[in-house]
Amino acid sequence: MKLNIALLAGDGIGPEVTKQAVRVSDAIAQKFGHEISWRPALTGAAAIDAVGEPYPDSTHEICASSDAVLFGAIGLPKYDNDPSAPVRPEQGLLKMRKKLGLFANIRPTFTFPSLIDNAPLKRERIEGTDLVFLRELTGGIYFGEKGRLDDGETAFDNCVYTRAEVQRLAKKGFEMAMTRSKRLCCVDKANVLETSRLWRETVQAMEKDYPEVEVSYELVDAVAMRLVQWPNTYDVLITENLFGDILTDEASVISGSMGLMPSASVGSKVSLFEPIHGSYPQATGLNIANPLATVLSAAMMFETGFGLHEEGAAIREAVNKSLEAGIVTEDLAGDKKAYGTSEVGDWLVANI
Ligand code: IPM
Ligand code: MN
Fold this sequence. Notes:
10-stranded mixed sheet, binds 3-isopropylmalic acid, Isopropylmalate Dehydrogenase, binds manganese (II) ion, two-stranded antiparallel sheet, alpha/beta
């Protein structure tokens, strides 16, 4: 297969971790007879510095005309500490999601047998955890009208959802549940929010189309608690943008490190694959960041993006072996030897 992949390395550790995912993908392509053409493009703070815009049109054209997008991370502290900055790297990410129509963000949380005792939660709590969030990604409070009143002392962010937006996300949730244990949890705050009541009503109305799926409705605060109490009781969870942002960070540490969890964002056109962690600016250039979340995002790209399941499985297998062999970065090494970002990549490439 000939594959054109837009490569958006972004900020902070983005370039280092995507570099290893590119090496691993190239090794897979060579092994299975594919031809990848990487198409690098600017995004985030790097793009602001170069052209004054975090998601330039030239980058959008590259993404929109590629078979997939592999994304690193976006954001730098100089912008976080300056709330009045006129352009922010994160705006690029939001613009990209909207322009590429990436309305569903798939964020799995699973455990690695060799890492269970590294995780912050007790073994008996997390063993067997294999859940996936479908976070709505192009609506809600992230994209509603926002601003300040004239007095400058009052600010607002509106949360808006249409039935159609809920339906298309929920449809993906039902379909995913059908391929797994057929359990779907709708996460909302229907006891308080009108948008949540629309979510619940919409999902309830869809239940009849998927009679085999067992649907539960849970309030977001209760889910936040149960996620650390009994994460292995969940299968597929659907939720709106902000709840999904928060809960997926929480869920990611169940695996042992935030540096391990991949994600896919899908919609009507091209799909995007990225680690769920951020740009970890303190680690930039130190060769210490864990590349596995990005490498596993590349595995999702082969599977979800291209339907190449053997290729994705080969990446996962190499990752599992590296963990068993203790070829891990400092976030996972504990008191054992920590390997560098590029050394983990070397090991994976050699083993593929
Ligand atoms: C994420 C990130 C982004 C989000 C930020 C960087 C805008 O936290 O992908 O989860 O909030 O969606
Ligand atoms: Mn987030």
